[in-house]
Automatic annotation (TrEMBL):
Keyword Ribosomal protein appears in the UniProt entry: yes
Residue spans crossing the bilayer: none
Sample GO molecular function, one term: RNA binding
The protein's name: Large ribosomal subunit protein uL24m
Residue ranges occupied by any KOW domain in the UniProt entry: 64-91
One GO term (biological process): translation
Keyword match Ribosomal protein: yes
Matches recorded under PROSITE patterns: RIBOSOMAL_L24 (PS01108)
Family: Belongs to the universal ribosomal protein uL24 family.
Organism: Clytia hemisphaerica
GO CC list: ribonucleoprotein complex; ribosome
Tree of life domain: Eukaryota
Pfam families the record matches: KOW, ribosomal_L24
Length: 268
């Protein structure tokens, strides 16, 4: 086979050029990693909705049921049964009835006894119960009205009878006489004594009085505030109010026009 001249090899591309390597090895290898351009519509999230979104609870304006009222359940397995209200949650518009609308909860053995089931009172919505009219013993709709004394009372719509509220009970003691005073309790006689004396002194003046610290700059005379303080102290201890010579002199002295105005515009 004749040899190709040097000039032809430099400027003329042979037609039958062949090689065992690809002409462009790098682009062939990178083609495996290329991704096609996505020409479809892009889905954009305009507003993110928070998970488990709970709607706000609208409070009931006229709440007619209080703790201790006799109510009747209108829904559920205990429908038609009556019971007293144990607790009221006005922020959630819910309440609990003693011994009704209960669920069984398994209680494991805590070392005190055998495991078993315990009844738990489930809350009811305000609209699922109704007040019971004490005269008829049936559930009735109630509204608020003002009586002759100007007090706000609950009135039955049908009969017009007043449904009184149950007396409030203490959560710790039903009667105050059942409380026994201990060694660390304050005696009732000491609590009923009036030992506080109101003071018009400033903070630093009270400290100086308690510590018997004399004033660095003595006062030239009693001020109006000092006289009021002396009068309050004397009334607190059952003494006669003191009259200073300064007040007597001010009554006898002849004030000018500005002095009379200043006397009327005094703070005390």
């Amino acid at each position: 086979m004749p040899r190709i001249p040097r000039l032809e090899r430099m400027f003329v591309k042979p037609n039958n050029s062949w090689s065992r390597f690809p002409k462009r090895p790098l682009p062939f290898r990178m083609a495996e990693w290329e991704t096609k351009e996505h020409k479809g519509e892009v889905l954009r999230v305009t507003k993110i909705k928070p998970p488990c979104q709970i709607p706000p609870i609208k409070p009931i304006k006229d709440w007619h049921i209080v703790r201790g009222d006799l109510v009747e359940i209108l829904v559920g397995p205990d429908k038609g049964k009556q019971g007293k209200v144990r607790a009221v949650a006005r922020k959630k518009n819910q309440l609990k009835v003693i011994g009704l609308n209960c669920s069984d909860n398994f209680m494991p053995d805590m070392g005190d006894g055998e495991p078993g089931f315990m009844l738990n009172e489930e809350p009811l919505h305000y609209t699922e119960v109704k007040l019971v009219d004490p005269a008829t013993g049936k559930p009735a709709d109630t509204i608020y009205k003002f009586n002759e004394e100007g007090l706000k009372v609950r009135v039955c719509k049908e009969s017009g009878r007043v449904i009184p509220k149950p007396p409030g009970e203490r959560t710790d003691w039903k009667s105050r006489s059942a409380v026994k005073e201990g060694d660390l309790d304050t005696k009732s006689d000491a609590v009923q004594q009036y030992t506080y004396v109101p003071s018009l002194l400033l903070f630093h003046e009270e400290i100086m009085k308690e510590m018997n610290i004399p004033m660095s700059v003595p006062k030239r005379g009693l001020e109006r505030r000092d006289l009021i303080f002396m009068e309050i102290e004397s009334e607190a201890f059952g003494e006669r109010p003191l009259e200073s010579s300064q007040d007597q002199a001010s009554e006898n002295s002849d004030f000018g026009t500005f002095g009379k105005i200043a006397q009327k515009l005094k703070f005390w």
